[in-house]
Write a structure and sequence with these properties.
signal; seven-stranded mixed sheet; FkbM_mtfrase; 8 helices; globular; Methyltransferase FkbM domain-containing protein
Length: 315
């Protein structure tokens, strides 16, 4: 197998811990509660699924499963016998942790045994096979970051890791009528993987989506399309997934260090098309950013409006 044939995913240690804002923590709890609500009301023949794609050390899924267990204890009938392993709120819950990095496998296997789950020791990708990882030789963090095409850089070690077609895995395991919680944190690979999951219909099988975006993990020339993908995803799911439940949820996590202060070529030009001849002022609330955007529409020397014309691909 030729090494150069496979896409390159490069890893490096994260600079500092990621922390959700208080509002973000509240939204995350509300999303998990929505999944728990669906689980309790699930048809007796249906199953529930939890996917942690990019599980790393398993911290997220451990906290998630403990919250699920506490919730089910609260709603369990008094005097009912303890549930068998893997059963929560009277329903079978299938847990899948997808993580290719070997340094996390021992901890994830312990979690799989504890929660009757399954470790998928592969990289989430568009097809089965392998992907090429470039990991920093000094890497010792519990968090990894895709840093772009790092081939040939000093201090970077390349290796092939097995990959799994995540769309096929979802379609194979989650049946229509099941309920699924799907968390995706693959450090920039989401821009490659999500189109495949949408087109294949696999993402329609997950009612509750928690997606972490990493704008700095892709080349600057692709960032405008990446932002458009994030903004278009709710509409694509709502209109492209027949029978999607009204209480389906989608949360976008955007940590400042991964998404802010990243140039997005073409973004200002697109905004200028819509603002018109005026000044727009505002702020981004808790983010702490105030902005002022001014556009002067060019007119002819006689003051007449520009001639009407049609653009083809923006030209």
């Amino acid at each position: 197998m030729a090494l150069g044939r496979w896409p390159l995913l490069a890893l490096a240690a994260a600079c500092r811990a990621k922390r959700l804002t208080f509002a973000g923590q509240t939204l995350l709890r509300e999303q998990q509660d929505a999944f728990f609500h669906d689980l309790v009301r699930l048809d007796a023949s249906a199953h529930a699924h939890v996917f942690d794609v990019g599980a790393n050390s398993g911290q997220f899924v451990e906290e998630f499963m403990w919250r699920l267990r506490k919730h089910c204890l609260r709603v369990r009938r008094r005097g009912a016998p303890p549930p068998p392993p893997g059963v929560h709120c009277g329903r079978r819950v299938h847990l899948y942790m997808v993580e290719p990095q070997q340094q996390f496998h021992a901890a994830l296997l312990r979690l799989a045994q504890k929660w009757n789950g399954t470790l998928v020791p592969r990289a989430a990708w568009r097809e089965d096979g392998a992907v090429r990882f470039a990991a920093a030789e000094t890497y010792n963090s519990q968090r990894a970051r895709i840093v772009g095409h790092a081939a040939g850089r000093r201090g970077v070690r390349e290796r092939l890791v097995p990959a799994v077609d995540l769309g096929a895995l979802l379609l194979r395991t989650v049946r229509r009528g099941d309920v699924a919680f799907f968390k995706l944190d693959i450090e920039g690979g989401e821009y490659e993987l999500l189109p495949h999951l949408v087109v294949s219909g696999a993402l329609c099988r997950a009612q509750h989506l928690l997606l972490e975006w990493h704008l700095r993990g892709i080349p600057a020339a692709e960032r405008l399309a990446g932002v458009a993908m994030k903004l278009a995803l709710p509409m694509l799911l709502a209109r492209g997934c027949p029978g999607r439940t009204p209480n389906a949820t989608l949360l976008n996590e955007e940590f400042r260090e991964s998404n802010f202060n990243r140039p997005i070529p073409g973004l200002i030009e697109e905004a200028a098309r819509s603002v018109g001849n005026r000044t727009v002022r505002g702020d981004l609330g808790r983010v702490g950013i105030e902005y002022e955007f001014r556009v002067n529409v060019l007119r002819s020397p006689q003051g007449r409006a520009p001639i009407q014309f049609t653009l083809v691909n923006g030209a």
